[in-house]
Amino acid sequence: MTHFEYLDHYLKTHLFYSKSTIKAYRSDLRQMKNHQIEWSMKSLQRYFNELIKRYKPTTAMRRYHALMALGNELIRAKRLKVNPMKQVRPIVHQHIQQREHHPLEETIQMIRHITDPTYRLFFELISQTGLRFMEARLLSIEDIQFAKSTLLVRHGKGRRLRTVPLGEGLVSKLRTFLEGRTTGLVFQSVRGKAINEQSARDALRKQSLAKRGRPLHPHDLRVSFATYLYQTGNRKLLEIQQLLGHGSSRTTEGYIISQETKLQQVIDALSA
């Protein structure tokens, strides 16, 4: 079995990646194979040299991080001794993102109007803990420490475990929601399986369009959570990094949206 065949099978059977992530990673593998790129530093460096000439920076950067993750899997499976991606020069795009800010407190109030109780609590949990969509979707009841008001995140990226705090109100809602259940997934379908990924996303999108006139995505909740902790809660960047499960503080920095600095407005004023 070649590295490509192994990774394709790995992605098809992966439990923790979202469907969109699996689709994107498999596409990256096909592109790599079609260009006859080998898992070697020289071959991969040539590949990314061409990518940055032909594709948007976001595409090249996303593919860089995707192949880095897949290379790490080849190491874990003992198919490679060294991940050649770690020797490839990183792709850096110096660009200030001017994303729309979603005030967390307003967002939580909007979420509380979702009619389905499962999706309502699901997104309320994400907005108040900063969990990734798949981390919340695969959360087990056994991983909630009600006495300590914390939960253990087992399915984070990079196999990083972390413990995050829960607010008293959220703990109370979780107790009521579980109705005495002590095992299994917190959020599950009537068949006892994980809630449908697309249906959950659609519930958030529908509610945000109805209340705010624009769609809201699960990732926006993590960004709002990080921004709230930094600006309103005055928490240190390292603390936010640990809560979000980021491997680098640079990633966390990209989540912080400034409410005060409106760069486009400043630039527009110069050309008035």
Summary of the model, kept short:
This protein is mainly alpha-helical and 272 residues long. Helices cover 54% and strands 4% of the residues.
Which tags fit this structure?
272 residues, mainly alpha, DNA polymerase, domain 1, 2 domains, 3 strands, 4% strand
What do these coordinates show?
By secondary structure, this protein is mainly alpha-helical. The chain folds into 2 domains: about 5-85, Orthogonal Bundle (DNA polymerase, domain 1); about 105-215, Orthogonal Bundle (hpI Integrase, Chain A). The protein has 13 helices and 3 strands. A 3-stranded antiparallel beta sheet has the order 1-2-3, with no helix packed on it. A hairpin with a 4-residue loop joins strand 1 and strand 2. It starts with a helix and ends with a helix.
Write the layout of secondary structure elements.
Blueprint: H1 3-12, H2 19-34, H3 41-54, H4 57-76, H5 104-111, H6 117-129, H7 133-137, E1 144-145, E2 150-153, E3 162-165, H8 168-178, H9 197-212, H10 218-231, H11 237-244, H12 249-253, H13 263-270
Antiparallel strand pairs: 1-2, 2-3
Helix pairs in contact: 1-2, 5-6, 6-8, 6-10
How many discrete structural domains? 2
| Beta-strand proportion | under 5%
Pick out the low-confidence regions.
Answer: none
In terms of structural class, how would the helical and strand content be classed? mainly alpha
* Overall shape: globular
Number of helical elements: 13
CATH third-tier fold name of the largest domain = hpI Integrase, Chain A
Give the averaged pLDDT, no decimals.
89
CATH class assignment of the largest domain: Mainly Alpha
Number of strands: 3
**Rg of Cα set:** 21 Å
Secondary-structure element series: HHHHHHHEEEHHHHHH
Q: Helix coverage percent of residues?
A: 40-55%
What is the makeup of the main sheet?
3 strands, antiparallel
